[in-house]
Amino acid sequence: MRKKIVFYLNGNRHEVGAEKSSMMLAEFLRYEESLTGTKIVCAEGDCGACSVLRYFPHIPGTDTQNYLPINSCITLVAQLDGSSIVSVDALKKEGILHETQRAMVQCHGSQCGFCTPGFVMALTGLVEEKLEKKEKTIDAQEAKNCMTGNLCRCTGYQGIINAALDIDLKKCESIKKRYYSEKQEVDLIQAFNEGVSIEGEEFSFFAPKTLEEAINYLLTDPEIRIIGGTTDLGVVHNKRKIKINKVLSLHLIRDLYNVTEKNGEVHLGARVTHSEFRHFIKDKMPEFANYLDIFASPQIKNVGTIVGNIANASPIGDTPPALLALNADVCIMGPQGKREVPLSKFFLAYRKTDLKQGDVVTGIKFKIPAKSAAVRFYKNSNRKDLDISAVNLAVNLEWKDDSKKEIKDITIAAGGVAATPLRFVKTEEFLKKNFDINLAVKELHAEFKPLSDVRATSAYRHVLVENLFRRFFSEVSV
Question: What global pTM score does this model have?
Fold first, then answer.
């Protein structure tokens, strides 16, 4: 077992122990490395000013061979183990600005400048993707998409979009070519092949190579937290609501990065990110891919995992309703071996699941609906992009025949309406016996009693659920 975290920063090797590996990356960059280009603003992964580029060379995937933007303000240094990181401070070469930086200056994409490094890194991530694909231009929609995780109070954004369009990809040298060498790859692969165990006075970090080791470690202390992308835990840690001080990471277990489909059944491992899952599912189930597009930012989706979104057990998580509607199962391994739990039985109460001490969620599985099925996922939030939902609704319906007057089977699920993601079981049974939307709406309202909070009142949530429910049938009954 290694006793240090190993990663590369701007081409330079770093080994850190318990004290520094417990820091958020943004703080490490600024206060330990004096790399002050990276800014800390929101400390919750919302504004993107802290964005850096990360390459994790150990897994296959559509985007995994590129340096991808992530939020450094909610990422523990420990999570960088086996990674190569590039910060905004390293973009300039021999006194000459990177093409993304030049374009931001030329097109007046910056005013106060506090958010600018984050926008530059988001755009540089897009440039890396373009160079990998050998594409020659960036269009406005691509620019907007890549910057959905970045906020600016000054410019009105048009100057930033103009800068993206002004980037000359012919003049861009790949960051990977500049900062990733064969020697670095050999070193990082060697690090990936060995587990990590770090013990400090205030922070301990364990990253095993096998699930058996992970389970045995969890049995030693019920307070141990399993971390994935820390896109949620990092926020509550920064806001001092909890302290991340004893953690287990599964990032060195290669099999957990697999996502496969066989005979119409999808299996995705615990380390599959939202970004990689979207690439995998977009041709098999476009509705799910489109739904993934409207929540979280590229920075969040590049590290946040689907399983983490489930195991977090938030009643306003975006993927639980969709997976509930698909009748997904949760794959679990624990001291007693393997088991599978229907997702509808996994959530027990607010932030409480069926997991017992020593249990690890190893993945999720679900069947892709038949082409004849009608499947829709809806989300309502105050902002279109990068916002927590007030309500989300998912419906999976199979008609008895082409007349669309009788329902063979239906699954309805929602988030933001109860202490857990909720299945509308009584409404489902009613519709299978009596296809009357107006009467079904009454059943629907009787099945949930949402709270009022900062995102929506109880009454508004009732209106939203009904409207989305009616919208579904107006779309699929034609």
Answer: 0.94
Phi, psi of 112 (to 5 degrees): -70, -30
Sign, CA dihedral 88-91-95-98, equals negative
- Tell me, what amino acid is at 456? A
Report in angstroms the alpha-carbon separations of 119 from 65, 150, 230, 253. Answer: 21, 6, 22, 33
Contact status, residue 71 vs residue 45, Cβ threshold 8 Å: yes
**Following DSSP, what letter does each residue of 84-143 receive, concatenated?**
EEE-GGG--BTTB--HHHHHHHHTT--SS-SSHHHHHHHHHHHHHHHHHHT-----HHHH
Query: What is the token pair recorded at 428?
Result: 């489902």
Distance CA 465, CA 413 (A): 10
10-residue stretch averages of pLDDT, the chain, 478 residues long:
97 96 97 97 94 95 90 97 98 95 96 95 97 94 95 93 97 95 96 96 96 97 93 90 91 97 97 96 96 91 96 93 98 97 97 96 97 95 83 97 93 96 97 96 96 93 97 92
Residues 6+ away with beta carbon under 8 Å from 61: 257, 276, 279
Listed residue (54, 70, 78) closest to 250, CA to CA: 78
Q: What angle do CA 82, 85, 89 make, to 5 degrees?
A: 160
- CB atoms under 10 Å from CB of 219, counted, come to 13
Q: Which of 387, 389, 393 is nearest to 414 (CA)?
A: 393
Handedness of CA 318, 322, 324, 325 (dihedral sign): positive
Rounded to 10°, the helix 158-166/99-106 angle is 130
338, containing H or E segment: strand 337-342
- Determine contact, residues 372/398, Cβ cutoff 8 Å: yes
How far apart (Å, rounded) are the C-alpha atoms in residues 432 and 62? 41
Region of 419 (left: φ > 0; alpha: ψ -120 to 50; beta: rest) is: alpha
CA distance linking residue 413 with residue 423, whole number of Å: 4
DSSP string, 413-477: EEESSSSS-EE-HHHHHHHHH---HHHHHHHHHHT--PPP-SS--HHHHHHHHHHHHHHHHHHH-
pLDDT at 456: 92
